[in-house]
Sequence to fold (521 residues):
Amino acid sequence: MPVADPVDTGPTDEGALSLRWSGRVSLTPRILFVNIFALALLAGGFFYLDGYRARIVDGRVAQAEREVRLIAEALALLPPAERTDEMVFFARAAGMRLRIYDRRGRLVADSRQLGVRNFQLRDPDKDGWQQDAARALDAVIDTVVGNERDPLYRERAPGRGLRWPDVVTVRTTGGTAASVWRAPDRTPVITAAAPLPEDRVLMSTVNARDITRIVRTERVRLGIVLGIAVLLSVLLSLFLARTIVRPMRMLARAAIRVRLGRDREVVVPRLPSRRDEIGMLARALSDMSGALRSRIDATEAFAADVTHELKNPLASLRSAVDGLGSVRDPALQAQLLAIVQDDVRRLDRLITDISDASRLDAQLARAQFEPVDLAALIAALVAYRVDRGIERGVRLAFDRDEPLVVLGEGARLERVFANLIENAISFSPPGGTVRISGGDDGDLVEVQVEDEGPGVPEAEREAIFRRFHSVRPGGEAFGQHSGLGLAIARTIVEGHGGMIAVDSRTDAHEGARFIVQLPAA
Fold:
């Protein structure tokens, strides 16, 4: 099984995932900010309402000009003595105040003085708090949108008609004119003027409270919608913060405890009820911490085993060296020197195997796997071993001519089968046969190594793959094996995505059968 290339964590990935100023802000305020920002776009509806109000006012101004022109044309058709009654009729029908000024600006006729009191400004001091709040909101919105305030409407004295800009414009141009004013309660007041015969001017005045009422109603509706949306957004943001930030903080605290190493068994919450990315992260962190804890335990156990295994030959070596200083008999000295040489060889072999075992995981993680023909590899191993000579007349038999191709590192796989062959030879009786066979079912390549030895007891079939666990045949000199051969073989096979196990032979003969399975290339 090929090992993936190490994940590139260089500047490219880091730059793609890096956050500048927002990376220094907690997730909770960031979630709130994003949701509130979206609602701020909704608040832009107030700008739309301001434009809507401006369009209504412009329409009412144009309407006021048309109405005053039509009324002036109607009054121009009547004799001056009859105009007063018609002016009262038009004022009452149109809901406005009508006034006629002569060319000197003196008031000639006024619908209010004639009994039509349909124009009356509201005193804001006599209104309730609701109107005060509405006016305050109008002032705030006008300030935010940059709306210019209309001039305050003030009455002119009866003889000061020329102080009305509409009257002056009509006398100057001879056409109609209109203006927008602001009442004390912030409602718009629209004045319009049109010429009359005898060099007179007709001026209308209307307080367009309905415009303010319509706009305020829409603002209240929009404000209610915005308020509900803000409340829901805050609640949803807090819910998201609870479901995202809180478990991430729990995971961060557990990771810190793992890093500090203060707790032997740090429980990383797995969040089994969550099926989202945070649940995946929690379970990945839990599995990672468990694997890390197992690796630490294995390292500690390995260190303890190494210490124990090194003490035996060192104790023997020290005893022999101490004896050399006091023994004068040449025969005894030669015997002690033989013990020293044997212990040195034993230490060298042990240290070499320990070094290989400690580096295997890291080396396999970085290895680049290539196609390897196990049939050719095993055939070369068998030929080499036969050429070296096999003790006790043990024979090797390998009956596979077709390729058995897997992806792996040839030198490591060679060591696996070399260990298995040497192990089978050491357990075989004199004149016994070690049979090696292989097969390929398309997905897996399986190799079996069988000997005619005593076999492996069922209780020991898993233990023999542990480090420094050695079950040796009777009569073998002590210290000839480090007890790491099968442990190294399992590490290599599992690093290739395969498995190794031991079982009894399937035929009638006694012996052990080692099975190695690797993914086919």
